[in-house]
């Protein structure tokens, strides 16, 4: 009994050491290139929880992620704790769409485990409705900054800044384009291991 209690205390201490749970806020404005060639400027805010192994590399995930649009677009703020990847206007439906992905696998599972790890949201007046990933989203290249954890950002991110950050190797392959090919999204092995 004493041994079991001692092991429990050691486990709790080790878990605490491996997950310091530091919070980090980022806020910036960002140029976004749209399909029709126009460029808009959005305001972004992200709050991350950074975790790290004892002496090893860590990871981070979104506690809060917000995009504020120019007033003339008449879009509500998008505020969902996921990593926004793509913003576009669907030519067929004229709806604005955001495709996002979780930064950690448990969040993917909690939100329904969609194929490819992608979540899509469509503007519906005063809110963003979650919808299945549309065909019009497949194959799109990321046009929002995704490489923002673990680094300082300028107050304004230009297209050139974004290109430099995205090519730094810190972004997962599935974050750089909407790709449903097997093996691109890395949470499927996680899920299989957890179920065994």
Q: Roughly what is the average pLDDT, rounded to an integer?
A: 80
Instruction: Give the strand order, joined by hyphens, for the main sheet.
Output: 4-3-2-1-9
Helix and strand run: HEEEEEEHEEEHHH
Query: What kind of sheet is the major sheet?
Result: 5 strands, mixed
Query: Number of helical runs?
Result: 5
Shape: globular
Radius of gyration: 19 Å
* Helical residue percent band: 10-25%
Euclidean distance between termini CA atoms: 28 Å
How many domains make up the 3D coordinates? Answer: 1
Structural class: alpha+beta
Low-confidence stretches at least 5 residues in length (pLDDT < 50)?
1-19, 188-196
Strand content: 25-35%
- List how many beta strands DSSP finds: 9
List keywords for this structure.
196 residues; alpha+beta; five-stranded mixed beta sheet; 5 helices; 22% helix
Can you describe this structure in just a few lines?
The protein has about 200 residues and is of the alpha+beta class. The protein has helices at about 1-20, 105-110, 160-165, 175, 185-195, and strands at about 20-35, 40-50, 60-70, 80, 85-90, 95-100, 120-125, 130, 155.
Report on the structure:
The chain is of the alpha+beta class. The protein has one domain (17-195). The chain is built from 5 helices and 9 strands. The chain has a 5-stranded mixed β-sheet. Strands 5-6-7-8 form a 4-stranded antiparallel β-sheet, with no helix packed on it. A hairpin with a 5-residue loop joins strand 2 (39-52) and strand 3 (58-68). The longest helix is centred in the first third of the chain and has 17 residues, at 2-18. The two termini are 28 Å apart.
């Amino acid at each position: 009994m004493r041994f079991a209690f001692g092991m429990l205390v050691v486990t709790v201490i080790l878990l605490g050491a491996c997950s310091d749970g530091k919070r980090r806020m980022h806020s910036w404005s960002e140029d976004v290139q749209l399909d029709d060639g126009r460029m808009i400027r959005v305001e972004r805010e992200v709050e991350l929880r950074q975790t790290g192994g004892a002496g090893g590399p860590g990871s981070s995930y979104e506690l809060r992620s917000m995009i504020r649009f120019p007033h003339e677009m008449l879009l509500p703020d998008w505020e969902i704790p996921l990593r926004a990847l793509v913003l576009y206007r669907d030519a067929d439906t004229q709806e604005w769409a955001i495709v996002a992905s979780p930064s950690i696998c448990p969040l993917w599972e909690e939100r329904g485990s969609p194929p490819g790890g992608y979540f899509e949201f469509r503007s519906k007046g005063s809110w963003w409705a979650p919808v299945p990933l549309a065909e019009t989203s497949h194959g799109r290249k990321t046009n929002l900054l995704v490489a923002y954890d673990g680094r300082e950002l300028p107050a304004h991110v230009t297209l050139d800044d974004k290109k430099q950050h995205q090519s730094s190797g810190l972004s997962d392959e599935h974050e750089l384009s909407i790709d449903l090919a097997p093996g691109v999204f890395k949470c499927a092995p996680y899920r299989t291991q957890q179920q065994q």
